Amino acid sequence: MKRVREIEFFKNIREIREYEFGVFYFFDNLVISEINEGVLFGWEMATKAVEAAYEVIGRDKPIAYISNRVNHYSVVPADWRKFYFNRHQLNLYSVVGSTHGSFASLVMERMFFRNNIKQFSDLEEAIDWSLSKIEEQTTSQQGNYA
């Protein structure tokens, strides 16, 4: 699997935030994470990433999130409830992973994520899909104000 730093799209980076639990790459309307091997990713960690996204991208723009699962880690699926109770909103959420474990976690996450979760085996396909959907949403919102 490809890492964010290995693809051409990386040249569009706005900011990188490295934490003890993983790396988050911020682009216009797009956040890509690469969580470290063996991490149990939970609410406290997600909060740091969300606040960083608000700082870099802003609170008023649609945000697509891609979980680039280049490492094996676990997600605390029940923490998605906390995410929504605290009014955080992801417009699009996709997972890139090629292991059985990646998609097993995805099944659990779908129980708590209100919007659809799209799965990919290629990072660049996930980016293309996310950017096209963000563009559709932005165009639709602008049409509503015309």
What can you tell me about this protein's structure?
- With 146 residues, the protein is of the alpha/beta class.
- It has one domain (4-145): STAS domain (Transcription Regulator spoIIAA, 2-Layer Sandwich).
- The chain is 38% helix and 24% strand.
- The chain has four helices and eight strands; from the N terminus they run ββββαββαβαβα.
- The strands form two sheets. The chain has a six-stranded mixed sheet with strand order 1-2-3-5-7-8, with helices on both faces. Strands 4-6 form a two-stranded parallel ribbon.
- The chain is globular.
- This is SpoIIAA-like protein.
Compressed to H and E, one letter per element, the order equals: EEEEHEEHEHEH
Please state how the strands of the largest beta sheet are arranged side by side.
1-2-3-5-7-8
Proportion of beta-strand residues: 15-25%
- Could you give the count of β-strands? 8
Assign an overall shape.
Answer: globular
Average of per-residue pLDDT values: 83
Q: What is the radius of gyration computed over CA atoms, rounded to a whole number of angstroms?
A: 15 Å
Highest-level CATH class = Alpha Beta
What is CATH's topology name? Transcription Regulator spoIIAA
CATH architecture classification? 2-Layer Sandwich
How many helical stretches? 4
Distance between the termini: 43 Å
Indicate the structural class: alpha/beta
Tell me about the largest β-sheet.
6 strands, mixed
**Unreliable residue stretches:** none
